[in-house]
Amino acid sequence: MSVASQILDIRASLPAGVELVAVSKFHPAEAILEAYDTGQRIFGESRVQELKLKAQSLPKDIEWHMIGHLQTNKVRTIAPFVSLVQSVDSQRLIECINSEAARCDRVIDCLLEVHVSSDESKSGWEIDALRDYLASGALSALKNVRIRGIMGMATYTDDTSVIRADFEALAALKRELEPMFDADFNILSMGMSDDYPIAVECGSTMVRVGSRIFGERTY
Predict the structure, then answer these.
(1) What is the mean pLDDT of residues 41-70?
(2) pLDDT at residue 13 above 70?
(3) Which range of residues forms the domain containing residue 209?
(4) Above 70 in pLDDT, residue 219?
(5) How far apart are CA 134 and CA 26, in angstroms?
(6) Which residues, 6 or more positions from 6, have their beta carbon under 8 angstroms from its beta carbon?
(7) Has residue 122 got a pLDDT over 80?
């Protein structure tokens, strides 16, 4: 199936209120434009340099989401234009994003990436560490970031009960944290090509789908 038909098929399967992020990392501009022509405007990238080059060459109304691990020394490159940083996984990173956003006279939207899977190689806040950070009040001093919600990944497994438990843990954490934020804390980004239907059942409001749209990525 074509990129366009896959986009339309996935979009039709999502309930109202769930946004689709087309994960375009490692895929060429031509494929992104095919998705764009269906009305898709949110695209996710995981490498800063690739994100910068695509943002420079593709339509300016695209909303670019940084979904991969972000090093602090790369934040300045994307701070002028990134729409949402989904992968905020440490106090050091969020403070760096705040500083670079201030340099650009922007407020950058961010998601707190939380580690719930059994895969130790995945990044993200441990839940207790995130609770401690938020309880410290340090976040309130950062005026150039806006926390929009949380992001996470389920364990890579064929066991759907494990996947569902991971998503339910993320959804429960979002509900727990909601009283600490205002109404803008409304994004729960979870679910990818293989598991997004389960994520949606568990309350996801944003899914990140790549290979199901664009095919297997080319490196």
Answers:
(1) 97
(2) yes
(3) 3-214
(4) no
(5) 35
(6) 212, 213, 214
(7) no
What is the pTM for the complete model shown? 0.95
The stretches of the chain forming alpha helices (DSSP H) are: 3-13, 29-36, 48-57, 75-78, 91-103, 127-136, 160-177, 196-201, 211-214
Instruction: Give the domain CATH number at 146.
Output: 3.20.20.10
Asked if the structure places residue 188 within a domain, the reply is yes
Structural domain count of the chain = 1
Residue 196: closest CA among 4, 9, 35, 70: 9
The better pLDDT of the pair 111, 217 is held by 111
Q: Is residue 219 part of a domain?
A: no
Sequence-separated (6 or more) residues with CB below 8 Å from residue 136? none
Structure tokens given for 84: 């949402």
Position 128 scores a pLDDT of 96
Return the structure tokens found at 70.
């972000």
